[in-house]
């Protein structure tokens, strides 16, 4: 056997993946440190062996090869006592290759998207980047669905590549074993491999110290809507966001788990209600305020919330009606149920719903929408509530034909189902058999 030399540095996941392969194969090699911080990789003597100035590079007796994936495949093929780490069987190999490509594309870029800015001295990392990492964990958990290792029953170079990246990733965001049980178990399994500590585990100290020293915070980027999709006012905001074709993140606030009473949320909305909008740091709560804000700031025209004083007054009236009467008819039943398990709906409370349906019927008159000929945010707010009230009292089509037809009309909107329909159905299904009308 000729002389093997690996050029690299412990902090680099691809280098550690090669160290894992070399140790697993039990071959002798020399390890030469290429310090990226001091620019060793840009020196002419290194560029001669790897013009891409990346680590790792392998020197196999004068044959130079870079890219950890290529190196590992080469090492197993040349030095493996068997092919278990990189199977010759076409289908088994195809699965290993798929994992390797996932590593070199999705996994590596997701990790780099967080580590890169930290290296540049940034301390605020957008939450979306951590969400992407969670997606990766989800995918890896899926890869492990029916096997102990990522590409089959035993370890392969795919496991080496992925554990090398994950060893860094978990320092940024832990793998939650309740959400990703297979992945968490796999990490523990890999750690028990006899060569793991020497090749990877013991080499993490510097990376860990670097990440710890960064004291980074996770920030929201762009528009974030906090809420739950069973909540009618949250859905009126989703209808507006969709109508305006705005990109936004949805941050779940579980009222039943008390998320809205946690200090973190109270700092943003002391009234502890959902929805709450965070528009690049501008915090707005109360759905009615939110929908008007969104149209004012982002709409190309004022149609959804007209600037004309008279038209606006009419929309405002319907918005206040929803806030003070229609939605309160719902809230006065569901809040006592959720928080105090009150399961009876008094006649007074059901009459509030009857009144609400009746007023909507009157407001509609012969118009297609709640304020006239055009769709406005008042339709979104009133419809989100009206489509949820049947949880307590059915909306009888014979008694309220205009309201029924109006809701059917709104269902035709291309974004209605996703923004309101699904959540309204969930709300009605969840509550309709839980309460008794007196
Ligand atoms: N008028 C408010 C009502 C918001 C509201 O009451 N939301 C309920 C969920 S549907 C809530 O957050 N309840 C929790 C609480 O008030 O503590 C709006 O339109 O945003």
What does the model show?
The structure is a single chain. Strand 9 and strand 10 (282-285) form a beta hairpin. The chain contains 17 helices and 12 strands. Helix 4 runs antiparallel to helix 5. The chain is elongated, with a radius of gyration of 29 Å. Helix content is 54%, strand content 10%. The strands form 4 sheets. A 4-stranded mixed sheet has the order 2-1-3-4, covered by helices on one side. A 4-stranded mixed sheet has the order 8-7-9-10, with helices on one face. Strands 5-6 form a two-stranded parallel ribbon. The protein has helices at 13-25, 44-49, 68-79, 90-119, 127-143, 157-172, 181-191, 196-199, 205-214, 232-243, 263-268, 287-298, 309-340, 347-364, 377-386, 401-411, 416-431; strands at 4-8, 30-33, 57-60, 63-66, 124-126, 217-219, 223-227, 249-252, 276-279, 282-285, 344-345, 436-437. The chain has 2 domains: 4-214, Up-down Bundle (Glutathione S-transferase Yfyf (Class Pi), Chain A, domain 2); 223-437, Glutathione S-transferase Yfyf (Class Pi), Chain A, domain 2 (Up-down Bundle), CATH 1.20.1050. It has 438 residues and is of the alpha/beta class. Residues 231, 233, 255, 260, 272-275, 286-288, 323, 331 line the site of glutathione. Glutathione binds at residues 231, 233, 255, 260, 272-275, 286-288, 323, 331.
């Amino acid at each position: 056997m000729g002389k093997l030399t690996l050029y690299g540095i412990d902090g680099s996941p691809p280098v550690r993946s090669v160290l894992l392969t070399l140790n697993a194969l039990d071959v002798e090699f020399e390890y030469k440190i290429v310090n990226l911080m001091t620019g060793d990789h840009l020196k002419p003597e290194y560029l001669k062996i790897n013009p891409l100035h990346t680590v790792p590079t392998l020197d196999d007796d004068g044959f130079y090869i870079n890219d950890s994936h290529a190196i590992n495949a080469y090492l197993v093929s040349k030095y493996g006592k068997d092919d278990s780490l990189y199977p010759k069987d076409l289908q088994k190999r195809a699965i290993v290759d798929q994992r390797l490509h996932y590593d070199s594309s999705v996994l590596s870029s997701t990790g780099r998207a967080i580590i890169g800015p930290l290296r540049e001295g940034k301390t605020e990392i957008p939450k979306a980047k951590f969400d992407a990492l969670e997606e990766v964990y989800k995918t890896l958990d899926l890869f492990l669905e029916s096997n102990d290792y990522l590409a089959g029953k035993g370890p392969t170079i795919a496991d080496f590549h992925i554990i090398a990246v994950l060893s860094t990733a978990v320092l940024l965001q832990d793998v939650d074993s309740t959400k990703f049980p297979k992945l968490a178990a796999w990490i523990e399994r890999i750690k028990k491999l006899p060569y793991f500590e020497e090749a990877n585990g013991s080499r993490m100290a510097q990376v860990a110290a670097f990440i710890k020293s960064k004291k980074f915070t996770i920030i929201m980027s762009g528009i974030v809507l906090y809420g739950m999709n069973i909540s009618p006012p949250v859905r009126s905001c989703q209808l507006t966001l969709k109508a305006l074709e705005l990109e936004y993140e949805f941050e779940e606030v579980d009222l039943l788990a008390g998320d809205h009473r946690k200090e973190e949320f109270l700092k943003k909305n002391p009234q502890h209600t959902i929805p709450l909008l965070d528009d690049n740091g501008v915090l707005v709560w109360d759905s009615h305020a939110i929908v008007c804000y969104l149209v004012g700031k982002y709409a190309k025209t004022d149609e959804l919330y007209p600037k004309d004083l008279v038209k606006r007054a009419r929309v405002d009236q319907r918005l206040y009606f929803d806030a003070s009467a229609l939605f309160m008819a719902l809230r006065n039943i569901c809040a006592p149920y959720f928080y105090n398990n009150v399961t009876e709906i008094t006649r007074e409370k059901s009459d509030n719903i009857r009144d609400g349906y009746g007023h909507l019927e009157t407001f509609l008159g012969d118009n297609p929408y709640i304020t006239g000929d055009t769709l406005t945010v008042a339709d979104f707010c009133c419809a989100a509530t009206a489509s949820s009230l049947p949880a307590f009292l059915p909306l009888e089509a014979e008694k309220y034909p205009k309201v029924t037809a109006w809701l059917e009309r709104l269902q035709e909107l291309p974004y209605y189902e996703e923004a309101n329909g699904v959540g309204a159905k969930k709300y009605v299904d969840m509550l309709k058999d839980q309460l008794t009308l007196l």
